[in-house]
Write a structure and sequence with these properties.
The structure holds 2 protein chains of 2 kinds.
Chain A (H helix, E strand, L loop, with lengths): L3 E4 L2 E5 L4 E7 L6 E6 L5 E7 L5 E4 L2 E6 L4 E6 L8 E7 L8 E2 L3 E6 L1
Parallel strand pairs in A: 2-11
Antiparallel strand pairs in A: 1-3, 3-8, 4-5, 4-9, 6-7, 7-8, 9-10, 9-11
Chain B lengths: L4 E3 L2 E4 L5 E6 L6 E7 L6 E7 L2 E5 L6 E5 L5 E5 L8 E8 L10 E2 L3 E5 L1
Parallel strand pairs in B: 2-11
Antiparallel strand pairs in B: 1-3, 3-8, 4-5, 4-9, 5-6, 7-8, 9-10, 9-11
Classes of the chains: A mainly beta, B mainly beta.
Chain lengths: 111, 115
């Protein structure tokens, strides 16, 4: 079965700094989703990547998919307090609409 | 346009009891999936319903069962509750007519505490 490992597990950065979260899969990635979750709440969709080399951006968040490395990265530029939360990557096994999730990365932004 | 709605938002049960959680999918979606998220972990897939049938199932015991109604809404039932069933239960909706074309919409979740 497919497993996703996120690194780091937690991250504390100063407001205004850049940061990167990585998601590595044990199997080939056919679809990679990034979600943000406020503590104990539902998941907010950020981006979905499907093709190797694909890169998408939304406001100050950019995600890339490296299919060969079976890895995706999420980069936040000039972090703000509103970026704080738990970031989850999820992979869609081929032919299935279910998602396998990583354990999450807890991001704290210090003012 | 309402998104995915779940009820109740919080509930407390004791060991051995049974619980029913409810989910209404986003308008236009016909597929509902349920996930369990333990504290500090990523969500884990329980099962998926489409056309009122269970289509896929994760590694969960038979104590976890579900149902989908003709209006696409869904219920998750858990029997003989264990302490380890305490978690946030998330519902996600999508459309099998458009697989892989967009995000899964998640609800706010139902927080279950088993004492």
């Amino acid at each position: 079965s497919q497993e996703l490992e996120q690194s780091p597990q937690s991250l504390i950065v100063q407001e205004g700094k850049n940061l990167t979260i990585n998601c590595t899969s044990s199997k080939t990635l056919y679809g990679l989703y990034w979600y943000k979750q406020k503590y104990g709440e539902g998941l907010i969709f950020l981006m979905m990547l499907q093709k190797g080399g694909e890169e998408k951006s939304h406001e100050k968040i950019t995600a890339k998919l490296d299919e060969k490395k079976q890895q995706s990265s999420l980069h936040i530029t000039a972090s703000q307090p509103s970026h704080a939360g738990i970031y989850l990557c999820g992979a869609s096994p081929r032919g299935a609409q279910k998602l396998v999730f990583g354990q999450g990365t807890r991001l704290t932004i210090n003012p | 346009d309402a998104g995915v709605t779940q009820s109740p938002t919080h509930l407390i049960k004791t060991r051995g009891q049974q619980v029913t959680l409810r989910c209404s999918p986003k308008s236009g979606h016909d597929t509902v999936s349920w996930y369990q998220q333990a504290l500090g972990q990523g969500p884990q897939f329980i099962f998926q319903y489409y056309e009122e049938e269970e289509r896929q199932r994760g590694n969960f015991p038979d104590r976890f069962s579900g149902h989908q109604f003709p209006n696409y809404s869904s219920e998750l039932n858990v029997n003989a509750l264990l302490l380890g069933d305490s978690a946030l239960y998330l519902c996600a909706s999508s459309s099998l007519e458009e697989p892989g074309t967009g995000e899964l919409f998640f609800g706010e979740g139902s927080r279950l505490t088993v004492l």
